[in-house]
Amino acid sequence: MHSLLAPLEENRRSATAAARRVPVLLPVALEQTYDYRLPDDVEAPVGAFVLVPFGPQQRIGVIWDRAVGESPKPVTDDKLKVITATIADVAPLPVLSMRFAEWVARYTLAPLGMVVRMMMGAPAVFEPSKPRIGVVRNKEAAEPTRMTPARKRALQIAADGLVRAKLALAAEAACSTGVIDGLIATGTLTEVAIPERRLPVPNPAHMCVDFSAAQAAAVHAMRAAADAQSFSVTLLDGVTGSGKTEVYFEAVARALERGRQALIMLPEIALTSQFMDRFAARFGCAPVEWHSALSPAERARAWRATANGQARVVVGARSALFLPYQDLGLIVIDEEHDGGFKQEDRVHYQARDMAVVRGSLAKHAVVLASATPSIESHVNARSGRYGFVGLPARYSGAQLPDVATIDLRQHPPERGKWLSPQLVAAMTETLGKTQQVLLFLNRRGYAPLTLCRACGHRIDCPQCTAWLVEHRYRRRLTCHHCGFALPIPEKCPKCGEPDALVACGPGVERIAEEVAERFPQARRALLSSDLVPSLIEMREIIKKIEAGEADIIIGTQMVAKGHHFPQLAMVGIVDGDLGLGQADPRAAERTFQLMHQVTGRAGRALAAGRGYVQTYMPEHPVMQAIISGDREAFLAREVRQRQSAQLPPFGRLAALVISARDKELAELFARDVARHAPPAARIEVLGPAEAPLAVIRGRHRWRLLVKAPRELDLQAYLRAWLTSLPKLPADLRLTVDVDPYSFL
Ligand code: ADP
Ligand code: ZN
User: What pTM was computed for the model?
Assistant: First the structure.
């Protein structure tokens, strides 16, 4: 019998082998799928996550819905490797996510596998899950014959029939877990898996907001956009405090009413408790959060909840865009101009732009909100490519703060100090009215440079082209590029002279020191990412500031974003010129946005706020725009400049960065890369030039910049270029950054 059956089975297998052959995409730096055979007794839909043999390893990949890339020689059916297992309990990756991944890979020139790896950004999802075990009262079982007071307490609590973790029940009953084990042994309590807590469902009708006339028009536009089953991008452009959040919440409400998921993206650090509280006030419960401070288990939970649709609204940082939404109907990008939406490693993508792409693929609405829109979005709205909704006034009726420059050439601070007499006077006056003051300096640490007075040596990083920054509070000199650190030396590391090292220039810690000297009575709050160890602590400090438990707040970029401090009346920008010196086409734009944002913190609730910008260049157009409040004039000027220089969004840029440990190799190869640039009439290749940050982590860096007209297929050009290159020597790295935001 066997001998007869065996060949039959073989036949059947080969007849269906084609049907059982599936392309699998692996989350590795490769562009293509590999074919595997699905075992006969296993059903796995497109998008299923599967464990497959890959080289010597077993890896988790995704069954793609079509073959991608070509394998050099197709594997015949009989040589196909077999899928080891399917990952149960994980919803398949939606086909839309596949299309989106392919699009992002094509656009950024990142390997498709790396984009999919981002989409699988919650490793714990794919590990075998161990259900948490709890105990529950077994209603069939009688009370144990031997009753103790502890047993009695435990059974009284368990009488409600709820499942509790053993530890939790023991704690509640004030007994040891041994008592609980005893009750399990007698059969009175039964062990069961603890069901995962269901996520609360945001209720679009939880609160009804009364909108002003201007807001109502904006709300109407928002709702209409979220309502249409079609792709749209709307720029929600409104001054700080105009109610943008309140207004775009209505778009979220509409998406929820229609049973679709919504995503709100914020620059990472602005995932403040304040925002979460406002969301909860509007929708009755917290949204699902997605950011870098989540634990692996929290990540897994959020990932699963987006995939199975339980997560109705996700509030997240840029990578939230790559979650496997079951049915996403709306994306809101708040502070859309923020540089934090650009990812600078592995897959170089701009989350705002990719959100627009996702919207066009999935035919849903995208809302970009900002008080200082990026030039890109501004131009798109002006040209009619994006819709435009404006909110010109603050909801409270409060005026935008009056901003003045303080000319440091005429009113310099005393030696060794950083706050000019004018700024100090304004602070004194504000504090006298028991109002809050915010001092902003976008520089962490105590001093950006440590210099030897005896020999002139500047202490720099051994592996980067950068000075070490003194962090006095932590008693260390630190490199902000590679993390290298050493204890603050007592004598000059070069000449050995003791007591000759001097700190040059200010960081926020030094400003805090000066504030303590000048205003010893004032309560200070220092907010800098390196000083606030955890998200929870940061949220506590922010809450204290909101509650008025600080008089002077000193902070870096961290304080600029999203917070609303009701008692803040005055803002001082310690160094308005800081961002302007850089060779970066967006330097002016960024400085304007940051200063506008920071000064906009003042007087949000109070009648009048004041802003002061210390500068050596009060006549600079950015300073003029800040003090006149004439944003339109500034935008018009920036747009003109970008247009005449054919910079984004009028032209397109891509950066190629070549790096190697060996100095010569980096330069030689960079020149070789440049020589291989395909000739193209309208494409300009600038460089290679040594990067401004010539060495990072011991790697020597060279840059090339590609400039192309908007309508040209820059990616096709780059791809042709890259394929023409010789094989990369070992240790050489070449990264491509399409639409670069960093030029260092
Ligand atoms: P933006 O996002 O533009 O900075 P917000 O949405 O944060 O503005 O609004 C600023 C303040 O005004 C917030 O405290 C908000 O709750 C309040 N606010 C705005 N619109 C309304 C409204 N229609 N009714 C009640 N409060 C509002
Ligand atoms: Zn370094």
Answer: 0.88
